[in-house]
Amino acid sequence: MSIGWNFDNTFTQLPGKFYSAVKPFPAEKPETVLLNHRLAKELGLDFSGVEKSEIAAMFSGANLPEGADPISQAYAGHQFGHFTMLGDGRAILVGEHIAPGGKRFDIQFKGSGRTPYSRSGDGRATLYSMLREYLISEALHHLGIPATGSLAIAKTGLPVFRETMHPGAVLTRTASSHIRIGTFEYAARFLDTKDQQRLLDYTISRHYPYLSESENKALSLLEQVAEKLLNLVLEWMRVGFIHGVMNTDNMSISGESIDFGPCAFMNQFNPSTAFSSVDINKRYAFSNQPGIIQWNLAIFAGTLLSFIDDDKQKAREAAEAVVQQFKPSFVEQWHGMMGKKLGFQSIEKIEAELIERLIDWMEKTEADYTNTFLALAKPDEASETFRTNENFMKLRSDWKFIIEQHHSGLEEALKVMQKSNPVAIPRNHLVEEALEKASAHDDYTSFHKLLAQLQIPYKKDWDKEELQKVPADFDREYTTFCGT
Ligand code: AMP
Ligand code: MG
């Protein structure tokens, strides 16, 4: 029976400097530990009736699906502010699969061995870090936030050394493409104008085909990417997501969350929260994220200048105008987003002031970001911390007054709020417990339980004790790693 792969590989129509042909490193003892049936269905793939060993051979890279044309992609990027040549050091683009609805998906292996871009890396991935990407990508998806998908994880049977020995695994990842700001940086720095033009045209035809008739395609692309990335970071801010490594090579042109290795969700509200072990200066802290997106857009703009206008001055001015607009647009949309979290239909002075007071209160008391909005909606169901806090209860009654006097009342507000305020987010202590048990002890019960909760994040009646009672000390010491 056919699985339903339908490959149509177009990236390889770009000049050869954009990629290198590669082969996955053969796995020793392939074993599929996770297969995402929801995503498989979306892709039009059917694995029922396929031998377990065949599935494992496919997702470990030992036996490629028909139509695959494996390559690794070249790109560069600014890592923590510094330009570097990079490329897929541990990833292989298996091919582009067309789903039944016509949507194109990159199918990529992560952790399948060395490539010409590996530098000193081993090209491998630990099971632990691939499980983390799987869990978080599912969480983001169900929260309604654009993100790369995780189709499967297969253990390779090969050990990976990271201070200690870990089981190695391959994650099969989907993305609307893996074109990054860093891909444009690579072309701008190392390739000629003709090749840069090819990348520009390819990106537009793949992601923004409606721009192909635009008078100034490069400028329009910049505007569209700015809009997509603004929406993305707004969504991250909504749920307390901290990407952790927002280097330009980890910024997708499509506006999907990608390469969120050291990511984590913020529990106690603190704008300077940063968990990543390598983010020493907290460059990618929670509240810095919108500014970093703007910084990354400026880098993207720089790669497009010669296509925006022959006159360098004019090109710079036009690009700068787009980049400068990001901040006021973000601030406006942030108010709209926070407004929804509070059930406001529109934001005037009185609503904006209440938002500010709430933010202040959360920061001063280090209140839990997720729980605060749930407590505002239903204080009776909230923990004592909220109910016995005079300032919070005063805020709550002022908020209720606004909702009743200036909006359509409590009932309507609660409906809006429910869609914006998740109940289940990946709580760091639960994520760690699930990953540790699965990766070190082959026990997936906690992982599947958490995954099930994260797949319906807005459901009201999840076990509060479990999802909302967060050990305060845990996050103070919590450190995440890039997952290499
Ligand atoms: P990341 O921070 O995961 O986005 O990775 C940054 C860069 O390092 C990318 O070019 C990766 O391909 C590369 N890289 C990460 N881990 C490894 C590894 N184990 N082996 C080779 N290259 C790697
Ligand atoms: Mg990356």
Protein model, in words:
The structure is a single chain. The mean pLDDT is 97. The chain folds into two domains: 11-175, no CATH class; 179-423 and 468-484, no CATH class. It is globular and about 65 Å long. It contains 17 helices and eleven strands. With 484 residues, it is α+β, with helices and mostly antiparallel strands. 46% of the residues lie in helices and 13% in strands. A hairpin with a 1-residue loop joins strand 8 (149-162) and strand 9. Bound molecules: adenosine monophosphate (AMP) and magnesium ion (MG).
In short:
The chain is of the alpha+beta class.
What small molecules does this complex bind?
Answer: adenosine monophosphate, magnesium ion
Q: SSE order, as H and E?
A: EEHHEEEEEHEEHHHEEHHHHHHHHHHH
Number of domains: 2
What's the arrangement of strands in the largest beta sheet? Answer: 2-8-9-7-6
- Main β sheet profile: 5 strands, antiparallel
Rg for CA atoms: 23 Å
Strand content: 5-15%
* Regions with little confidence, pLDDT below 50 for 5+ residues: none
Number of helices, counting only DSSP H or I runs of 4 residues or more? 17
* Span of the ends, CA to CA: 37 Å
Query: Roughly how much helix do the residues carry, as a percent range?
Result: 40-55%
Care to count the β-strands?
11
The averaged pLDDT comes out at: 97
